[in-house]
Amino acid sequence: MMNYPNITIPLRSEHLWRYTSWKRIHPTNVDEIPTADPVKFSEGEDSKIEDSDEIARSFIHSVSKICKRINLVGENKEVDLRCSGHICAGELEINSEGDSSLILRISGDAGWTGIRLIGTVSGNLSVAVVNDLSKDGHFLRAEDWTINRDSSLEFATLSVGGFLNKSDIRVKLAGKGAELRAGIASNGHASRHDDHHFEIDHSIGYTTSSLVMHAACSGSSHSIGTGLLKIADGADGSDAAQVFRNLLLSEKARAEAIPELEVLADDVKAAHGAASAPIDENQLHYLSSRGLSKSQASSLIVEGFLMDAFRHVKNDIVVDCLRTRLLVHLECLING
Which of 124, 156, 279, 328 has the fewest CB neighbours in a 10 Å radius? Predict the structure, then answer.
């Protein structure tokens, strides 16, 4: 039996749905479970994951006709997720061991796309998720990661596609020595809406996490970054930090940054910060004096600002992929 019809529609007062309501991100009427085309995975074997009591995860599960599993054992992979049709959805399970890297590129011209991902990390995994959907699409993304004892996850997201985007990413540090290094870079242009919620759960002590989100907003775009950092009772020795920075490139652009801490242990390190600022006119003037047009100078500043979100990502394959895709995206914006 599907859980979705029995789940109460969340109120706008809830932290997760304050800026992008469930009614707004749902592809049809909220009471409907529409027919969806399956996401086309370039790799993976057939799998199945359980339903959820959380509304976004349960809805994607209800409409998905496909679920794939990718097993990584000390290897590097690039996987394309192609999304087409009026409504498109799929689920993905990732199991990683040893030292591995994974690049997920989500692309296509679907009107609405839903992706649900469940990942388990044993060893060291560096993963990049690139939202490269068409500029008119709506995108709902729900991810759950578990990092086991003495394991690490480098998590990088580059969000440049889609018109209305909602991401709910949750990470559980489940064993001593578990580490998360996460970076999110979002480029807002025209009237693009990009809403990222990141939840980090230090369920056990002597675990480490860092989250950096950078959003550049031009036109009348709107970026939202919310981070809930939870350190459980008894999780002493935890070390956690999160930082949100926004670069505003126009008067109509908006950016929200809402870091939150829920600390129930005593002997921990926990820090958070948020800042928004316009582009530095002195930097623009300097670059313009070197022969760059205003749009080229602004693009160069945005590139450096967004790539800095991945400062803690050590895997060169992942960083090079993110930089290449960002440069292509920015060049397309300049050339119209």
Answer: 328
Q: Which residues contact 281 (CB under 8 A, 6 or more apart)?
A: none
Residue 274 has which token pair?
């948020």
**195 neighbors 232 (Cβ within 8 angstroms):** no
Q: Are 102 and 157 in contact (CB under 8 A)?
A: no
DSSP summary character for residue 16:
G
pLDDT digits (tens, 9 = 90+) for 185-229: 999 999 999 999 999 999 999 999 999 999 999 999 999 999 999
Q: Answer yes or no: is 178 within a domain.
A: yes
Range of the domain at 113: 4-277
Q: In the chain, what is the straight-line distance between the N-terminal and C-terminal CA atoms, in Å? A: 48
Look at the block and give the residue holding tokens 């919310």. Answer: 226
Identify whether the C-beta of residue 306 lies closer than 8 Å to the C-beta of residue 325: no
CA atoms of 99 and 15, how far apart (whole Å): 35
Question: What is the count of structural domains for the chain?
Answer: 1
Low-confidence ranges of the chain (pLDDT < 70): 1
